[in-house]
Structure formats: structure tokens, C-alpha cells
Amino acid sequence: MGEELGSLKLLLAVQLAERLGSGVVSPILFLFMRGRGLTVSELGLIGTAGMLGWLIFEPLMGVVADRIRKKYLLVFSALASSFIYAAYPLAGDFWHFSLLAFAMSSVMSAYAVAVKALAAELIPPAGRGRTYGRYVSAISIGGIIGPFLGGYLTEAYARSVPFYMSAGVGVVGMAAALLMRYDERKTRERPAEKAAGGGGGSLWTRPFIAILAIRMLYMFNLVFRQGILPVFLHESPRFGASETQIGLYLGLMQLTSAVSQALLGDVSDRVGSRRIMASSLFLSGISYMGMLGISGAAPLLILGALQGVIFAAADLSMMIHLMNIMPKDRTGMVMGLYSESENVGGMAAAPSLGFTYDAMGPASSVASVSAILILSGFLSALLIRDGKEA
To answer: Which of 282, 264, 281 lies closest to 272 in space, CA to CA?
Structure first.
């Protein structure tokens, strides 16, 4: 038990490093590429190239993660992603950025599957919502600091500096992964754990298929938020936000997300993940509609603070529901398939949102994301059930 607790703390350090590294480049990545003369449609295609890496490699990593120590996947991804971050300032055209996006997502496939599976294995079932809520709340610290720091470094120095910082942070994450002592191979053959965890049986139950469909639709929100939204805020006459203001908006969103996640975990234990999931998806869609009716920095920051809570509720409730229905001896495969649903949604979202932005206007892309989130809220209310019923 002590070994598992120590490894959970080190896993937290690994995720903190990754969140900080990715957070530093989040407000300026698409602006950096836009500054090299790319259109928003081309940015959407680069997003598609990135999603292709996830699409190809995450299912494979799900299989690999159930066969080797997952910490080795973390070490590989941390080291390789550091090299890729350092290569971004050297890129100059659409094909360079497309290749880097594909390489980064391919490498991070190993990270995403391993870290989700390890979290599911190391977090105890009793009071899972509360523990997981506090866990992701702590991880969010990296996402709070990163965007603001990235925006500031860009304006104070150059747009290349955040990439080099992200590369250095990745090395810290690699060191934390190397120190993990937990070896999941020792627990795979324990009869008591298999009996308690419900190992075996088909993965393709109704609850599992339902959560895959909901997560697939939710990717329109994630793709829009990470890629097109900063461009929208920067170019829209309503906002005209600078890199620092965009970083502050994203950082504030992460702050309210972090503060609320611990409480949301407790609420999930009491009322179940289904109600939280449906309501947060509805509210996510409404929040984007609200973005079309406001202008200026202050209203944007207030909306960002509210969105942080809403988005945190959606992400947390989906993951808790998944952990509650998954077989414990197939965590890698489950997380690989869950991630693959994200990839399919992202592959559809990236080009369609980019095309909508260029062809129909920025407001249409915001409205499209809003409509899809409201639809996913209806579907979650109809299809998701708390518990493990098939």
C-alpha cells in the first residue's frame, strides 16, 4: 500500500510537469503558427494531423500498457516530447507543423494511456470521487500557471521561449517517472483482485459504449478550446485579446477548475456521475452561446471562470463513470479505447471547425460547438446510468 501511495504521488508530479509544459505553449501555439502565414483552415488541418497520431497509436498503446510497466511509457513520452517542443521554433511552413503535430500526438499517446490507467489502478475504490477530485485539482496547478506564463514570456521575450521552457519541464517529468516503484505486473495475477475488480468479460457493454459516444462529441469542445478559441479571441472585434489576456483567460479557467474539482468529486460520490455529466454538458453549450453576446476583457474573464467549473465537472464525471464500470485487469485496453473515442471526435472536429470559421465566420464556429455540447447533454441524460448495469 505504501508503494502504491508513493507511486501515486510521483504520478502526480509527472502530470504536474506535463500540464505545466503543455500549458506554457497553449495560448501561443496556434498564434505562433498563424504568425508564419497559415490560414485558420490550415490550422484545422494541422489539428487533424495531430489527431491522426492519437488515432493510430492510442489503441496500440492500450495493448502495450497491459503488457509492460506503464512507467516506461511515461519516461519515453516525456523525453521524446521535450525534443519535439524544442523543434517547433525551427519550423516554418504548413508541412513542418503538420509533421510536428503528428509526432507530438504519437508520442503523447503513450503518456495519455499510461497515466490514465495508472491513476485508475492507484486510486482506491472507496471514496473514488473524492480522491480523484483532489488528485486532478492538484494536477491543475500546472495548467493554471502555464498559460499565463506562456503569454507573458511571449510578449516579454519571443514566441520561441515557451517552447524551450516546455522542453525543460519534460525532463523533470521523466525523472519523476523513473522514481516510481509500483509494478502493476505483480497485481495482475492476484485472484482476490480479479474477483473484486470484475476482471474478464466483454468490454462492449451499454454503459461503456455510451460513455465512448459522449466523450467523442465532447472533443469538439476540447479541440475548439485548445486551437481555434485563442485565434477567435485574438481576431474578434468584440475582444481583440492580446497573448497575455488569452493566457490569463485560460489560466483563470484552470484556476476555477482546480478549486472546484475537489468539491465536485465529493458531489459525485453523493449524487452520482450521471447528473453532473448531463448538467455540465448543457451548461458548457450555453456558456459558448454567452460568449457571442459579450465583449471586452472583464466579461470574458468572468465567463472563463464559470467555464472552468463547468468543464471540470464534465471531464471529472466522465472519468469517474469510466473507472466505476471498467474491469480492473484491462485498464490499458479500456483507456486506449476511451482515448480512441477522443481521437475520432477530434478528427471530425478539427477540420470541420476550421472550415466553419473560414467559410461561415467565427461566430458560426462558436455556435456549432455550443449546439454539439447541448446535444451531448441530451444524450448523456438518456444513455448514461450510474452503476455497472450493462
So the answer is: 264
Domain count for the chain? 1
Residue 191: what pLDDT? 45
Please indicate, yes or no, if residue 71 is contained in any of the structural domains.
yes
Q: How far apart, in Å, do the first and last CA atoms of the chain sit?
A: 31
Residue at grid coordinates 465532447: 218
Domain assignment present for residue 389? The answer is no
Closest C-alpha to 307, from 355, 354, 366: 366
Can you state the percent helix, strand and coil of the chain, rounding each to 5?
85, 0, 15
Q: Give the closest residue to 261 by CA, choosing from 140, 120, 160.
A: 140
pLDDT number for residue 284:
95
The closest of 249, 79, 253 to 169, measured between CA atoms, is 79
pLDDT of 193: 44
Predicted confidence at residue 201, as pLDDT, reads 54
- Specify the amino acid at residue 26: S
Q: What is the pLDDT of residues 256-312, one digit of tens each?
A: 888 888 788 888 888 888 899 999 999 999 999 999 989 888 999 999 999 999 999
User: How many angstroms separate the CA atoms of 43 and 47, rounded?
Assistant: 6
The CATH number assigned to the domain holding 43 equals 1.20.1250.20
Let me know if residue 24 belongs to a domain: yes
Distance CA 93, CA 89 (A): 11
Q: Which residues of the chain have pLDDT under 70?
A: 1-3, 185-202, 328-329, 386-390
Q: Residue 204 sits in which domain range? A: 2-383
| CA-closest candidate to residue 140, choices 258, 243, 23, 25 | 258
Q: Within a domain: residue 388? A: no
Are the C-beta atoms of 320 and 90 separated by less than 8 Å? no
175: CB partners within 8 A, 6+ apart: none
